[in-house]
Amino acid sequence: MDVSQAVNQRISTRAFLDKQISAEEVREWLAAAQRAPSGGNLQPWRVIALTGEAKQEVVDLAQKSLAESPRGEKTDRPIYPKELWEPHEARRRRVGEMMYEKLEIPREDKAARIQWFSRNFRFFDAPLAVFFVIDERMGHGQWAHTGMFMQTLALLAEERGWGSCFQECWGMLRSTLKTHFDLGETEMVYSGMAVGCPDPDHAVNQLRAERADVDEFAELKGF
Prior knowledge:
Elements: H1 3-9, H2 23-33, E1 45-50, H3 52-68, H4 88-103, H5 110-118, E2 128-135, H6 140-159, E3 163-167, H7 174-180, E4 187-196, H8 214-217
Antiparallel strand pairs: 1-2, 2-4, 3-4
Helix pairs in contact: 1-6, 2-6
């Protein structure tokens, strides 16, 4: 598999087969991703990888916390800007509708949509859950570099026949996760990631989000 193929076939995988990933495989995967770009070689990321009982503890914790506060915990780092503007808001809504169309869950069936969304907090039943931790004192550059590390992991997952789904939704439970993982005073969970072998027959894994044409976001000058 070349890089172009990995980039093209990567999707947000939301249904997984019941196939485990070993600790040795996880270590090799993480080590390979360490070649991701890192300004000043700061390597500002830290990773917590969970499976089995350790993963289930987080799932149970999320269920309890969200039952008490369905909207999640207060944060000064929301997943999206408070009033998202166009064309970004339209894109966000469109991909959501595309997903529910694949799942055959109509707009008026709000209970079914909520039930599906809750699967985020089970990592979509993936065998491996990964959390990315960053120090709050880091600047925007280091957040970008952490994203590069995450993308590198996603592409390396494709090479291994795994699927992945970035899950910023775990930002709704940052305080709870900070306590659970006994993070440092200035550390925070940035995002989660579900990882495993994709279920090729599940409808949700047939979703390919639309992307803007190059001319919509790029200017080429001096050519």
